[in-house]
Amino acid sequence: MPDVLEITATDLNTEEFINEKVKEIAETVGSGTAINALSGGVDSSVVTMLGHKALGDRLITVFVDNGIMRRGEPEQIVKIFKDLGVRVDVIDARKKFFAALKGITDPEEKREAITQTFYKDVFGKLVKESKATYLLQGTILTDIDETKAGIKRQHNVFEQLGIDPKKAFGYKIIEPVVQLRKDGVRKVGKALGLPESIFNRMPFPGPALSARVIGEATETRIEKVRIATSIIEEELASVHAFQYMAILHEDKVTGMRDNKRDFGNQIEIRCWDSVDARVATPTELPYATLKKLAERMTREVPGVVSVTYNITTKPPSTMEAV
Ligand code: XMP
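^ thats the input. predicted complex w/ xanthosine-5'-monophosphate below
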């Protein structure tokens, strides 16, 4: 892999960058068609806008509904892009993902099941069916660094598809934001007219809500953590933290409801102050906020009888529990 020339956020001229990338995509794809998967994250959103500017209707953008997104997320993302004049096709793959997650409790096996289902079973098939000649992908420089260092391994589409696309089908990969890091991508997103909810989006892991469930990610357990996530996102919306999350624990504890014993679920709340996610400290949330969170979680999330707040720093903790 040849070294990629970095463009730092400070050096970045967003207008020049956008013009250059739009021109590059248009020239590369020529009269063909391209496809890309939009997740609503800032990288894939920026790539979608660049591809749309370059190709218009010749870009097929798909949003894969894997069933482990937050409440209303597929609809919200489609609406945001519709308002920007970009058509997004939603692919309902919920059954496939839940089938792949069935019986899996190990965190790394969960990640692997999601990655394999996405690339091999869902997106890989869509790419083939679409007859697109190019695949637009939101790889950023940090992804390349992490792939090289062996930290993450899900960024090589060639490998994940289990094919050599160029040899087998003539697909080529275009990575328009590969010279940028997250802060640069956010700047380009803003310049492209994406709403702040996208260009300043709080980090959300690729394995989505399945990373917020300790143990098996069944539909019922995902729904519990989905409700908990909505509550935390509403209650902490004005808190300037790096990231906040609700986690559904596997262990149950004894609680009481209507004067009866109720052996129920536990939700753990985490809220982090951090600059780059490498080290982090828990935000000193006001006690009244924590109390409100506990009240809402026990009232609104079925079966929850205990709510805790994480007070551990990273390291030795990590930000996500799974
Ligand atoms: P950790 O838990 O490693 O998280 O302290 C650091 C940051 O990375 C995000 N994260 C992930 N993102 N796939 C992702 O795309 C993953 O498997 C994953 N695990 C953690 C996490 O949300 C945090 O911002």
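Residues 67 and 94 are 5 Å apart (CA to CA).
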